[in-house]
Design brief:
The complex is a heterodimer of chains A (about 350) and B (about 450). With about 350 residues, chain A is an alpha/beta fold. Chain A is built from 16 helices and twelve strands. Chain A has an eight-stranded mixed sheet with strand order 1-2-4-3-5-6-11-12, with helices on both faces. In chain A, strands 7-8 form a two-stranded antiparallel sheet. Chain A has a two-stranded antiparallel ribbon with strand order 9-10. In chain A, helix 3 packs across helix 4. The longest helix of chain A has 22 residues. Chain B is mainly alpha-helical and about 450 residues long. Chain B is about 80% helix and about 0% strand. The N and C termini of chain B lie far apart (about 120 Å). The relative contact order of chain B is 0.05. At the A-B interface, helix 1, helix 5, helix 6, helix 7 and helix 8 of A face helix 2, helix 5, helix 6, helix 12 and helix 13 of B.
């Protein structure tokens, strides 16, 4: 009995410490790297980050994040910001913020997202930078969208980077892929209109229930007297549960055509009446995946390189999970510089090439 | 009396006295701040002090608890010690009264009152468990003052996790702290069957842990669902069963032209309806049309389908959980044989969650589980759809507000208009660009 009482009292003391630690957090600071709103359409916003160095790459890079969760994961905290890392490496960075779809947006389709919002963002960046071609960098589902966009509009894209992006959906080591086969998506979309973010979160928690619903919080309790750990934890927690709903029609097509029928890699996927042929991706491609990704396993990302028509393709993996490769301190030292260097090497314009030749 | 000659009870008593003074002081401060309703920095500072005193109190308590153990008491039932114990108990009661007084302002439910103690007969472990339970509940109320929403939610989840951890600890303490040798098969069987029965409670707690509210019902135990299922049937059909005889009689009289009997029949029908469907759906004036009845029936049917599907889903989860524990107990028996069984609770906890995680991953990736999950989600979504239909119907009949269905027409129109406007704007821009180019060349060409 003494053991139990001791353990309970220790736990209660930690809870008290937890109150103190959490009381000390007044604001959760995320998304702090300075940026400017340059385009807005419905709930979608396009931001341009302010350069942090003098010599900025002439070809801008547009980041397209997934519709699931929020894009500020790329700029979660100042000492672990991938965006900041890219700016410091001289990239000229733009990012799409999808906003929070509500019932008004239930009829938005994948065509609206890719042919509409992404195309308009690309056009805006082209116009503002004066470049005919820009770099497109897609993260997770955003990577799938960018691959589709690049296949349909290769003339507008100089380089394509996909990060932890699902391309082949017919894999047997991803639980989301396995579960989605039995998802009755029509009933779901017809009922909800906009699929609630909470619903998506429950699915993600179920992937690793003991770690994500229990041990993670035990870990916090054990480190509750460390303000830095608490601050980082709460920041990540804010991001994880800051989950926008999914516009029903777009979600229906994404699940049906990709998760259930795997049409993209088979060359059968259609968008707005046009067939998407990945062989049309003739620009240089960098495919980045996370070795321990349980949401988009490597087996889903890797096949892109063989499916595209480009003869300049690279594939790089980093140790870590789906999010870990962006937010871990190790990732900051490796992921951001590697991607920045790859893009910089391929972001020479004709003018700069001539200048270099003359020099 | 110097420290050496003091008995453990006297030491305990003195510590309690100090604790009580400190406690009372902090409570008085807390209450005055609460009464003034101030939320400025001074209050925050004061709250932090209160937290600090809480921590100190916990430390004192722990210290005194360690001293106040039967095996350390020696001749505790001498008259001197009995008086001391009586004083100690009075002191405890005072402290609990203060505690109750203070904590009541922070929690919604009733408080654990000293009179709830069943005197000396209540095992002290229960007292402390109860105390901790109540304290945690008070903390949760207190946490509503935390400035950030995420901070509050994090604490809530951490607090639920700590409850779960404590449950697992109690389980461990009951069944695993004194493991028998591997050869003692009877003892192992006894442990195995007893522990697996109470292990269901642990699984209950785990599967509703930190999930958003609407999804918790998914994780209820099959037993609970089956109880719910019966309850639903009784609630729904009992009023019809009760009135069926009278309804029949009145109907026959009405058929012979008795207007009063007909009104009685309608009244009985309405009552039975209100006490069953109407009561459950909170729709006292749903009407008696066939359409409405069909809607209600469809909703009821989808609810039953949902219960059945989620029952199957929960059963799969619980079965796996129990199998894992069974397997773990066998592994522990083998490890015990080699002298390598987990000795501490934290070792057991690590082994427990990691073994479970692996086992559930294996379950989750099977085709059969995937189908069960798909069916459960589908049944839940269908039930929601039927329920929404009923609400829509009720709202449109009774309130001057547009329903979701009506709003859908508007959403669709807005979506289509937006699309058309965007396409037109694009065309206008292209025409404008062409015009500008032509103007730059010196005029339109024929």
């Amino acid at each position: 009995m003494k053991k139990i009482v001791d353990e309970q009292l220790t736990m209660s003391k930690k809870m008290l410490q937890g109150i103190n630690s959490l009381l000390a957090i007044e604001e959760i600071d995320v998304d702090l790297t300075p940026k400017e709103l340059v385009y807005e359409e419905d709930k979608v916003k396009l931001y341009h980050y302010k350069p942090l160095v003098k010599n900025v790459s002439p070809v801008p890079t547009l980041i397209v994040y997934a519709l699931v969760n929020r894009q500020y994961m790329m700029d979660l905290q100042q000492n672990r910001s991938v965006v900041r890392g890219w700016l410091e490496q001289g990239l000229d960075v733009y990012i799409v913020d999808w906003g929070y779809p509500d019932k008004m947006d239930k009829y938005l389709t994948m065509e609206d997202y890719i042919d509409g919002y992404i195309d308009n963002a690309v056009e805006t960046v082209r116009s503002l930078s004066g470049q005919d071609k820009i770099n497109l960098l897609g993260v997770c589902q955003g990577g799938t969208f960018c691959a589709i966009y690049s296949a349909l509009n290769p003339e507008k894209i100089k380089n394509l980077v996909t990060m932890v992006a699902p391309i082949d959906f017919d894999i047997d080591d991803g639980l989301l892929n396995i579960w989605s086969k039995h998802l009755k998506i029509d009933t779901m979309v017809d009922t909800f209109g906009v699929i609630p973010g909470d619903f998506m979160n429950v699915g993600f928690l179920m992937l690793k229930p003991f770690q994500l619903m229990l041990d993670k919080y035990m870990g916090l309790l054990n480190n509750i007297d460390n303000p830095e750990v608490v601050q980082d934890f709460v920041r990540m927690e804010k991001w994880i549960f800051d989950s926008p709903g999914q516009a029903g029609e777009a979600f229906r097509k994404f699940i049906k055509d990709l998760f259930q029928e795997n049409k993209l890699i088979k060359g059968e996927f259609e968008l707005g009446g046009r067939r998407v042929d990945l062989k049309n991706i003739t620009m240089p491609v960098l495919n980045v995946f996370a070795e321990q990704d349980h949401l988009v396993p490597p087996s889903s990302s890797k096949p892109l390189n063989n499916a595209v028509g480009s003869d300049d393709t690279d594939i790089i993996s980093f140790p870590g999970g789906h999010i870990g490769i962006y937010v871990s301190s190790k990732a900051q030292k490796e992921v951001a510089p590697t991607v920045a260097k790859w893009l910089s090497d391929r972001s020479q314009t004709e003018a700069t090439k001539k200048k270099q030749r003359r020099a | 009396m110097d420290d050496k000659t003091k008995s453990p009870v006297h030491n305990w008593w003195e510590i309690q006295g100090q604790m009580l003074d400190m406690w009372k002081e902090s409570m008085d401060k807390m209450k005055s701040a609460k009464a003034s309703g101030s939320t400025d920095d001074a209050t925050k500072k004061m709250m932090e002090n209160w937290m600090e005193s809480q921590k100190n109190m916990m430390e004192f308590w722990q210290k005194s608890m360690t001293q106040f153990q039967p095996w350390k008491m020696g001749n505790m039932f001498s008259s001197q010690e009995t008086d001391a114990l009586r004083n100690w108990w009075e002191m405890q009661q005072k402290m609990l009264t203060y505690w109750q007084d203070a904590m009541n302002s922070f929690q919604t439910g009733g408080f654990f009152y000293p009179a709830d103690f069943k005197g000396w007969t209540m095992p002290s472990v229960d007292i402390y468990q109860e105390m901790m339970k109540r304290t945690t509940s008070a903390y949760r109320e207190f946490m509503k003052m935390i400035p950030t929403q995420v901070g509050q939610e994090t604490f809530e989840k951490m607090s639920q996790t700590s409850d779960m951890y404590k449950s697992l600890l109690l389980f461990w303490e009951s069944y695993f702290s004194n493991l028998p040798g591997k050869e003692d098969l009877d003892k192992w069987k006894e442990i195995s069957s007893a522990s697996l029965q109470s292990y269901n409670k642990i699984l209950d707690e785990f599967f509703s842990l930190n999930l958003p509210e609407p999804f918790r019902s998914f994780m209820k135990t099959p037993a609970e669902l089956s109880g719910l299922y019966q309850e639903v049937f009784i609630n729904f059909f009992q009023p019809w069963i009760d009135t069926s005889g009278q309804l029949q009689a009145k109907y026959m009289e009405a058929a012979k032209g008795d207007r009063e009997a007909y009104l009685d029949f309608l009244r009985l029908w309405q009552e039975a309806y209100s006490n069953s469907f109407g009561k459950i759906l909170q729709m006292p004036a749903l009407g008696m049309s066939r359409e409405s009845m069909e809607r209600v029936n469809a909703s009821l049917d989808s609810y039953m389908q949902y219960l059945a599907a989620s029952n199957k889903f929960s059963a799969a989860l619980y079965q796996s959980g129990r199998e894992v524990m069974d397997q773990m107990m066998q592994n522990i028996a083998e490890l015990a044989e080699k002298g390598e069984a987990p000795e501490t609770f934290s070792e057991f906890y690590e082994l427990w969650w990691q073994t479970n995680e692996k086992a559930y991953f294996e379950l989750f990736k099977t085709e059969s589980f995937s189908k069960i999950l798909g069916d459960a989600v589908d049944a839940w979504v269908k039930f929601k759809k039927r329920y929404d239909d009923l609400l829509d119907n009720y709202i449109s009949s009774n309130f001057p507000v547009p329903t979701d269905k009506e709003m859908d027409t508007l959403y669709k129109s807005v979506y289509e208009m937006r699309k058309a406007i965007k396409a037109q704007a694009k065309t206008i821009k292209e025409l404008q660009d062409t015009l500008n180019k032509l103007s730059a060349k010196g005029g339109a060409e024929e």
